[in-house]
Amino acid sequence: MKTNRIEELVQKVVSEEESGVRLDRCLRLWIPRLPQGLIEKAARKGILKVEGKKVLPKTRVEEGQTVSFPKTFLDLDEEAKPKEVQPLTQAERKWIKGLILYEDDDLLVLNKPAGLAVQSGTKQRKSLDSMLVRYYEDIKPRLVHRLDKDTSGVLVIAKTLPMARWLTQAFKERGVQKTYWAVVCGVPKQPEGVIALALSKKADSVGEKVRVDAREGAHATTHYRTLDTLSTKVALLELIPKTGRMHQLRVHCAEGLKTPILGDGKYGGIEAFPLGRKELHLHARAITIPLPKGKSKTFEASVPSYFQETCNELGLENV
Asked: What was the pLDDT predicted at 182?
């Protein structure tokens, strides 16, 4: 006979450094090996709290707030054998330096390569954020937005806490404009337009997947424009997301336009591999961000070599 076991909770106060980040991210800053699944489970059971109130993992925490979570989370950290952090090699430092598009005292802008995770996780030991921590000795770079592991392109990182707070708010208020390029399988019926399909994240046999969900999904809007085409087989699109949902562009291309992104087997199936190319052809081309002094800056990132080679082979121009 099953009995309900009462979970012992512990409390920890959010510091200035941790202010403004998502709760699940904050918990992993405290307990690096904590799986996302356990965080989600604790939230569903109502034993994950901020200031005594039940919250979702995506809730952002603020300095001085008290977070309550199961003591078993700490047990995981104690069981893990601490590993000595290895300094970057000269080759790794040179490689990271080559990714930098812009840098000043407050801001770092990179051209992230495809195949590199932005953030560490249970299945991702090598990540951009962990490398940047070792790249800089006197500062702690802070992520203010994300790119999927297989998406390349421009990524903005704050080098100071005030800039991190400013940019986090700018993204939240949709004051940032992002422009993506994608090679898609097929050609949209209309050369340009707006895709408005609500999306929700649901688990299936192969993990989490985003689906069109008109009833319970979150509003998601993407503007698109066709830059070039090859007959009716392939197109080069410009995509401007007006919302920031997980896998929004991939689902909007596959389901909204019926033109899956080349190499996106997760949402396009076998139709996403007409050329035998495995790389995801989705690139964050440009980003425009507002700055504290009232001005805005636009940063652009060149496409990776495989993207350029595909366009050259297909005769797609404007890249």
From this structure: 98
